[in-house]
From TrEMBL:
InterPro entries given in the database record: NAD(P)-bd_dom_sf (IPR036291), SDR_fam (IPR002347)
Pfam families xrefs: adh_short_C2 (PF13561)
Organism of provenance: Phyllosticta citribraziliensis
Family, similarity comment: Belongs to the short-chain dehydrogenases/reductases (SDR) family.
UniProt protein name: Uncharacterized protein
Coiled coil: none
Gene3D superfamilies xrefs: NAD(P)-binding Rossmann-like Domain
Entry keywords, A to Z: Oxidoreductase
Amino acid sequence: MALLANKVAAVTGGVTGIGRAIVLEYLRQGAKVAVNHLGDSASEQHFNTLAEQVKAAGTSGDNLIAVAGDISKPETATRLVRETVERFGRLDVFVSNAGVCKFADFLELDADLWQFTLNTNLGGAFYAVQAAARQMASQGDGGSIIGISSISALVGGGQQVHYTPTKAGVLSLMQSSACALGKYNIRCNALLPGTIKTQLNEEDLADPQKRAYTESRIPLGRTGEPADLAGPAVFLASDLSRYVNGAQLLVDGGLFVNLQ
């Protein structure tokens, strides 16, 4: 039985990496999905590739729409929710996944990169979660909001002084939202990926020595794939997790406990 049958989801940053894997699995599990992407030519092409994958998998293209726009702008979040509801009638699941991660030396880190990262990763998450929660509260029958944080929220990183605070902020946002929105039966939880092979780290992982070092610290002995996040995201979206609220779920192959 499809775990997300009759559910409507929206996913930010859903055309590449972790977001794409979640979108594909949500569709396989019976959901209708609205995908937000930046709207530039590269993102448009990524969405077209995603749509082709959906078609090749035999899933109806009518169950997938794109809403382009910069999620760091509050009007994009509002429009994403509005167009999702206009197309599919409601909103049951929201995944705040969009984010940026550019490595930078702390002493050379400039204000523009700091603000860009903060606006996208944390500002965008706040606008999106608030817009989704308003819609879910108005429907009166609850919902599930999932924030994609990071293991970096718990361990930090010397080349990510601008990034790790935003992911800690996403974790805190989900915990506080769980407290604020529980009275509406809206559950808010965070997924914390470890090292997952995406466009953000493909250059580092292409280096055999860096990859070997990274994998040596992970008890399961491998870096993660975007699809490794899809199952946990389905669980948190589904009724199987109906009493899970304010949780943080590490999806890291055991990396965090090995660092303790």
